[in-house]
Amino acid sequence: MAAAPPAWGVRYQLSLPSEAAARSAAAELSVMGHRLTAVRVHDHFRYVPSDVWYDRPSSDPELEGWWQVFSLAVYSGYERAALEPFLRSERIRIARAARSHGGFPQGCAEGHASTVEEFFTRDGLLHEQLGADVALPSPLPRDPARPPTGPPWKRSEIGEPAAVVQAVVAVAERMYGSAEDAPDAVGWLLDEEFAFGEPYGATGEFLGELADGVAHQGTCTDDTVDAVPFLMELVRDESIPPGSRLVLLGDLLRLAASGPAAAVSLADRITALGSTWEESAAEYLTRRAIGSELPRLLSRWEGESDVVRFTLSVLTALCGLHDQRALSALAALPAPPGSSRADAVSLVAALLNDDREGVATALDRLASWSPGIAEKAAVPNVDPRTLGLAILPDLVLEDVTSGIAAERDLP
Fold first, then answer.
1. Chain-wide mean pLDDT for the chain?
2. Contacts of residue 100, Cβ cutoff 8 Å, sequence gap at least 6
């Protein structure tokens, strides 16, 4: 008989506006079957003389005076993968509990229950239920069946690493001449140390490093804004292989959606603090820079493949532009009814048309088969249009990158 899988532990964290609210939320989590529940003032260890964080500046000044709840929930009897649909519903339920007490969820950490429990900080421990497990339904819920994607795209070669690096450097030299004159996010390509460095073993490795140089871990900065014309020129350059152009277009999609994505992830926090979402200057300027360069890409419309036209239509929607070619391309795409591509196309069309009802309908359809989108849509503080923009890169690139011939090279 096979050994039972080790119990799985999840440590949840909530932020609440007062000690009373935190205690109420902690009691609710304890009733759910959480094994350990602790309540501490925000930045608790800043007030502990023996702690390394004592008397240091707050890590999050906006939450000064707030309280936090930390809880450990244990789930037994199943492998982690089988638990995912149930754990997703748990995250939704716990986020709802945080909102009901005027707060918001601050994420969670997972691992083998024994390890998570060993390292659980017991300061402010309020409830302890020795050996308690969260009751699991039988059978466990399963994710809904995903509809077929749609007809395959024409395959696009990503290119050999050395040739792609050479082509990218050539564009940098043409635009800037030297590292001293190039934006910081591009200058390394023209640096002598880079020229004599170790060759890349995969094209995707190089493109991933390029994307990280422009926006480290996807975060837009002033350097990102300055590098946008370079990325756009790479997409236009005929020496860049079609598959690599698609990867670069995917990077632009993520950059253009960085503001909406942040708004969605912070929606509960913003509402709990009584704030209004404001896109960062770098996110706004990055999207505006992409939008200002986009007509140059659209001017090549007639010579582009269906998959590139689809991606350009998505980028047009993300930048808030109105281009009839983008809408016409959507109507002509191989996207049969009932396919995941058709649902994505419906969302893009609704965004291009500023059709709020159409956006809501498309999101409902997408959430019916995409658990990740359903989890985001479960947050009542998220504006549907913002959610639609935020999910576009992942939704579309999952389909689009299937048209790249050398998928193993993707970052």
1. 93
2. none
Cα atoms found within 13 Å of the Cα of residue 149, Cβ hemisphere only: 12
* Dist. CA 189–CA 181, nearest whole Å: 12
Tell me whether the omega of the peptide bond preceding residue 139 falls within 30 degrees of 0, making it cis.
yes
pLDDT 10s digits, 174-214: 999 998 999 999 999 999 888 788 889 999 999 999 999 99
Residue 234, amino acid: L
Q: What is d(CA 208, CA 215) in angstroms, rounded to the nearest whole number?
A: 11
The string of pLDDT tens digits covering residues 25-66 is 999 999 999 999 999 999 988 888 887 777 888 889 999 999
Q: What is the dihedral of CA 118, 121, 122, 126, to 10 degrees?
A: -110
